[in-house]
Amino acid sequence: MSQSLLERVNVFFEDAGCKTDPTGLSKLACEGASVAVKAGAVASALVFGEILTPEDIFRLLNLEQGDIFYDLGSGRGQVVLAAALASKPKKCVGIELMEPRHQAALAAKAHAPEDIQRICEFRCEDVLACRLEDACKVYLCNAAFPRHLNAAFAGALDPQRTPALEALVTCAALPEESLNQARLQLTQVAECSATWATQGAPLFLYKRDGDGSFAARATAIPTNVRYEASRQLSAATQSAGLSHEDERSLLR
Ligand SMILES: C[S@@+](CC[C@H](N)C(=O)[O-])C[C@H]1O[C@@H](n2cnc3c(N)ncnc32)[C@H](O)[C@@H]1O
Q1: Would you say 18 and 104 are in contact if contact means Cβ atoms under 8 Å apart?
Q2: For 1-11, what is the mean pLDDT?
Q3: Confidence class of residue 37 from pLDDT cuts 50, 70 and 90?
Q4: Probe target for ligand 1 pocket from 10, 127, 132, 145, with the most ligand atoms within 8 Å of CB
Q5: CA 252 from centroid of its chain's CA atoms
Q6: pTM of the model
Q7: Nearest residue to 54 via CA among 8, 125, 6, 114
Q8: Buried-most residue among 16, 17, 175, 201 (CB within 10 A)?
Q9: Where does the DOT1 domain lie (predicted)?
């Protein structure tokens, strides 16, 4: 059987001495987390979960040669490397706050073929404060983000900061009130497999200045994924007020 994209990318990590089994990944997940939280990061934003089928993201984004792909919160960078392997876009960029995860991405990149290394770039930066002006197709793994952080990420994607943005795929629905500012419209819900939902999790496709044709484009997805997507979309339209947990996380 041919190797999946993730299996191919994991070879770069193994060659770099970075373990890709659950024990190795949970060790990486813990490294640096308490320091980052003490420095003011929102703990739930640092949760380390991974997409197991990155090809679902690339298909949804219609990732092609000539595109500039960004993973906002790229963890160990496996989605960025997989994007480079899958479609050979012009550039694939991973932005990650946590230094140990960023270092793992750099180590794996160094073991990738020369043509993959040339188009991949990893930056250890805060998405909310970094340059994103050439980002065209964007992925955001926000499954564990609290509502106010999702709103802040959507704010970071406003047209002034991301003039080239065409499409954004997220793992959780963005608060409705934040979409206007980013000039984004939901156009499709699709399915993927992820470490937090191996039986299926929703992916949300937003387009800049989309034509509002969500209903017409809805694809057949399994009942469990459709249920989760509609639960999130309904929460996304509810009041913008902060929950107690959100308020606590802002007290830093
Ligand atoms: C759930 S992981 C996703 C990893 C990878 N993108 C994937 O889907 O497999 C989310 C990552 O976002 C990072 N992150 C959270 N807030 C961030 C910020 N403001 N700037 C950069 N990275 C951030 C976290 O440290 C974490 O590694």
Answers
A1: yes
A2: 90
A3: confident
A4: 127
A5: 25
A6: 0.91
A7: 6
A8: 201
A9: 42-105
